[in-house]
Amino acid sequence: MKEAGPERLASVLMDKGALASDWLPAYRRAPRHLFVPDVIWPGRAGMNRQDDRVTRDGDPDLWWQAVYTDAPITTQWDDGAYTGPGKGKVPTSSNSMPTMVFSMLDALTVRETDRVLEVGTGTGWNAALLCHRVGPENVVTVEVDEASAKDARDRIRQAGFHPLCVVGDGAQGYADGAPYDRVIATCSVGSVPGAWIEQTRPGGVIVTPWGPEYGGEAVARLVVKGDGTASGNFTGSSAFMRMRQQRRAPKHVREYLGGQPWPADGVKSSTVLSPEAVGDWLPMFAIGLQTLGVFPWAERYEDGTYTLWLRDTDVTSWATVDYEPGRTEYDVYQSGPRELWSEVEAAYWWWDARGCPGFERFGLTVDAENGAHTPWLDSPDQRLPIVG
Ligand SMILES: C[S@@+](CC[C@H](N)C(=O)[O-])C[C@H]1O[C@@H](n2cnc3c(N)ncnc32)[C@H](O)[C@@H]1O
């Protein structure tokens, strides 16, 4: 077997269909090791988990192995506030999983000399790949974190590219560099910023990870029209870090119970739909597309049982469903003007009745002027129902 390195990873990515031949020269000209920092927390493919810290000086072989593995690499915790040798609370910057990097670049369908805006410079790898493809003079990359932005700019320059590196809130786009032919975000959003649509030429493309409040996430490929809207399909599942200004900040369950012990004034019923069925990434996404401001949280107990909590973002309603392995019926409590479990259950059964469509069959239309997001199935005229 070949040693870990750029050529072996290239074969892996090509076998997976992620690295297309038109991106191979950029992959070779901007190798990943030039952009991965000396201090890293290697991740695992498809899992929100990080290994212990690896330093390039301390363990160069492990560092190299991580760089040339198809997995994400965490490079910052807690917006840089955590600097210790362990792990912070939340990973806030990374060098993304190569499969995801090249799948998204493929979805971007760039042509030579396209003007491209990237949101989320991170380590600078994606920006350098774009520089090779469309020319550094056509690339603007925006990073909200000052320290990450500076380090990335230095690395991009050392690799021989000189795009415009901006420190700022990428939700505003970068008007001075507009109009763009392509916009690519490498942090996820729940609301596509209107500025991205306004700063993109009609016919241009926006590729961004998008996730509804309930959970699940997928990459949206939106084509900008001349009427201030952008619309298109999702291309596949993703799990990116949320744009800093759009992070979820859920209130504690205590705030929903009005000072009373659970189940407070909750009305009891039962369900045959297992909480397990509504907890996977795809059904979560399908439920999220049909519900407004509902988010789940599982309170887990040592014996393998758990309580699924549902809360609304307006702090008016809550629901719980108790899960026990082996049961076929589960206790439900609901409180407030919204019956949140009933909403989630209706959304799940709607998705199930259509044969459990995958991410790629869903799409989204966004209106820059009023911020409306309209999800659909198969075509824009088949809008999803909003339950509740
Ligand atoms: C997954 S990393 C980006 C990976 C990067 N494209 C690369 O090639 O290494 C996500 C980045 O988005 C940045 N970010 C979060 N919110 C942002 C915002 N509002 N504007 C610009 N960047 C933002 C984070 O600081 C983080 O560095």
Description:
The chain is α+β, with helices and mostly antiparallel strands and 388 residues long. It has two domains: 6-186, Vaccinia Virus protein VP39 (Rossmann fold), CATH 3.40.50; 253-353, 2-Layer Sandwich (Double Stranded RNA Binding Domain), CATH 3.30.160.690. The protein is built from nine helices and 19 strands. It has helices spanning 6-15, 24-29, 60-67, 98-108, 125-134, 146-158, 194-198, 281-290, 340-353, and strands spanning 39-44, 47-50, 54-55, 73-77, 91-95, 116-119, 139-143, 164-167, 180-185, 200-210, 218-224, 229-237, 267-271, 294-300, 306-312, 318-323, 330-335, 362-367, 373-377. Strands 8-7-6-9-10-11-12-18-19 form a nine-stranded mixed β-sheet, sandwiched between helices. Strands 1, 2, 3, 4 and 5 form a five-stranded antiparallel β-sheet that branches. β10 (200-210) and β11 form a beta hairpin. α8 crosses α9. The longest helix is centred in the last third of the chain and has 14 residues, at 340-353. It is globular, with a radius of gyration of 22 Å. The protein starts with 5 loop residues before the first helix and ends in an 11-residue tail after the last strand. The model has no long low-confidence stretch (mean pLDDT 96). Bound molecules: S-adenosylmethionine (SAM). S-adenosylmethionine binds at residues 92-96, 119-120, 122-123, 125-126, 142-145, 148, 169-171, 186-187, 240-241, 243-245.
